[in-house]
Amino acid sequence: MHIVVSDARFDAGAELDKFTSRAKGAGGIVSFTGLVRDEGGTLAQMQIEHYPGMTERAIRGMAQTASSRWDLTDVLVIHRYGDLVPGEQIMMVATAARHRRNAFEAAEYLMDYLKSRAPFWKKELGANGADWVAATDADEDALSRW
Question: CATH number of the domain at 2-144, please?
Answer without folding.
Answer: 3.90.1170.40
